[in-house]
Predict the 3D structure of the following.
Amino acid sequence: MTRKKLGAFALVIGSLIIFALPAGSFGSTSAELKAAREALVKAGQQVQTGLESTVQKTGEGTAGLLKKTKGATQKATTGKSRATATDPPTQPPLHGANPHGQGTVGVVDADPSSERPLAADPSGRESGEEVVVGRARGEQNADGSYRGHITILALFGNEMVPPVVTAPGETKNGPLDGLQTSVLDPLCMSTQVCLSALRANSTTTASGSTNDFALARASLLGLGVGAGESQGNIAQDPNCQAAGGAARTANVVTSTGTVAGAANSTSTSKSCRGQAPEVANTSEVINLGGTGVALPPLVPAGCANGTPDTQAGLPGLLPIICNAEEIAGAAAVREALSVFALQVGTMSVLKETTAASESLSVAPEAATQCTDGIDNDGDGLIDAADPGCHVGNDINAPFDPTDTTSAIPLPRAAFRPARTPAATRNAPTAVTTTATA
């Protein structure tokens, strides 16, 4: 059997595993059945809440959204002017100007905008995207903090299923986490038959955010299968910041690597102080046995081998762009498959995107003398514990990380304890402590 045939066979078997494992998973014990039922009921309630909210919010406005004029909506929402893509089909949009990594399983966009970048809102509300499926995003906010956001399903900018959103110090999971931890994880431990359903895990710290989404994952006998997966990550150390996005529509892997895949993309960006940014994009439409597969004329060779901006489909009526790519400085975007309907010039009635990834990084600013962890003025106090790093040299005043006065050695007498009168020299004294960085 050739590698391509083996890959196709693996893709079929993998699909069967994903759909067959749930049926076999719940035949163990009544306790497991009860836990599964409770988890599913809870998840159903969450979905129902999201649906009710969506119906209430859309209502009569749905028709208006279908006929929207996106340029006016975006400008009114953000209050910022944006550039216009000269060739939108081959210039896929970045979402937002803040550093981030983002992966999206699928997007449906009526009357797609040619403005760049689009708004950062993962639900698609501000960017005018009608349907968003499986979008994972890790982002650095304008104030330097980080956040994570996973949109499971959004319709007309409304989250149909409650999103998973994290701030620094938080870890959160998706609506089926109860089912995962009470039934599927124990099953995996006892039988080595592993299944994940609607995974949406987000963790954010003070220095980054990791976000992982999957409609389904299964592992059996060394064969791993994934369907509808995306990741959006960003991390920073004192010298560099790295961001990455990935999206996979379907994937079958073994310990030796990928044996079959459909519509996969990745994007990475890394920026370090004093160095040029490093960016890289990859994508493929069909992969069997580790080799891209061409199906001309619908899927030409460029779609198979990852050639950026490969044109396919039916010009005008149903044009297709494989591996659409845009790189500008430290920003990179890659869409594995973009299908347009009724395209005239640079405009089209509809755009459907499968497996989109993007990344943007910014080199960290050099540490100031109030954030470098060094006792610059030799007073035994470091950074926030040093009065010289606070407004007016007052330890009780707000911390000012840009202050440089802590680097100026103050007279040593200023830090000597006051002389104690002889009468009280042996009396008990109050002890105070000051945290040091």
